[in-house]
Amino acid sequence: MPILPEAADDIKRIENAARQAQISVRGAVSIQVYGLNRLALVQERTRLLRKLEFLGSLVLDLSAVADNLENMEVAEKDLPSRAYAVARIRATVSRALAEIRNLAKPDAPFSAMVRSWIEVFKADAGAPTTSPSAPLGWTAEPINEVIRT
After folding, report:
1. Are 126 and 143 in contact (CB under 8 A)?
2. Of residues 93, 21, 35, the one with CA closest to residue 64
3. Is 57 in contact with 101 (CB distance < 8 Å)?
4. d(CA 54, CA 38)
5. CB 53 within 8 A of CB 46
6. pLDDT above 70 (res 128)
7. Closest by alpha carbon to 66, among 49, 51, 79, 85?
8. Helices (H) and strands (E) in the chain, counts
9. Residue of 107 and 29 predicted with greater confidence
10. Beta carbons within 8 Å of 38's beta carbon, 6+ residues apart
């Protein structure tokens, strides 16, 4: 069981640093007391965030590709091929979203962090973009509907 630091000055220093950084004092003290900044934990959280960023970009990019492909003019004979390609892309997006949802389950490691990431992702995905790589008319409302925690 973790032991609180003996010197009150240490807690006060942590409290002051947290206030200056405008973060939760309780959280900062908990991180220090429970040793949540141990290298292995930091590396695991970083690995998980990288995985979430990869899955998130995969969802957005593949959704945009499917949307563009669906709106593309093709010859009548190519309609079944286009429909198949769009369905496969959307299935891959669904698998990526399912993986994100699994990472947010209460029994998953760092699930609170994942749920926070999802909220930011949903907000960002629904926001208008000025990026030249975003297709014209692209919207991400379906992403907000699909990710539910």
Report:
1. yes
2. 93
3. no
4. 24
5. no
6. no
7. 85
8. 6, 0
9. 107
10. none
